[in-house]
Amino acid sequence: MGIPQVSTGDMLRAAKADGKLPADLVAQMAGGALVPDGVVIGLIDERTRKDDCAPGFLLDGFPRTAPQATALDRLLAARGQKLDRVVALEVPHDLLLERAVLRRADKRTGQIYHLKYNPPPPDADLEVRTDDREDVVRKRLDVYEAMTAELLPYYEGHGILRRVDGVGSVDEVSGRVVQALDAK
Questions:
Q1: What is the pLDDT of residue 2?
Q2: In Å, how far are 87, 92, 164, 176 from 160, measured between CA atoms?
Q3: Per-residue pLDDT at 144
Q4: Could you tell me if 3 and 58 are in contact, meaning their C-beta atoms sit under 8 angstroms apart?
Q5: Which of 90, 131, 165, 174 counts the highest number of beta carbons within 10 A?
Q6: What's the pTM value of the predicted model, to 2 decimals?
Q7: Using H for helix, E for strand and C for coil, what is the string for 143-155?
Q8: What gap in Å lies between CA 89 and CA 164, rounded to an integer?
């Protein structure tokens, strides 16, 4: 689509790696807690002001609550922008758990693998991210579901929510997402 994917998770991991996050916040993240809204909004604001976002951007993992959505609306309105579409990928809880818990990263290359869907090569030096441990993922999913309970109706009320079946191959789900983004 010619626009960047802006992932709050990627931004937070980069800020952590660069030492830009306080130690208590890093510890909260490792335990599955969500980052305070002000921190995430600041990262979104900074990132979406970059030149590559001028034609638009795709937010990944944000907003997750109605207050975050309201803050994002205010941030964008101050720039004369607004969201065109919101895509809710619908995936059963047990499949989300499997997708995260079986994810691994190669320590040397940073390449992400999945033990079931995208197995690593035999020579990969794998590690499990602390936020991909089963107990942490379960907590994160429970918190996410509770928080988003009011978010989806918020965007339905704005007429921009598109629900997409998130089960299937990458190509199948990508095709559904593109269709949802193209739909008026």
A1: 86
A2: 8, 23, 13, 16
A3: 82
A4: yes
A5: 131
A6: 0.75
A7: HHHHHHCCHHHHH
A8: 5
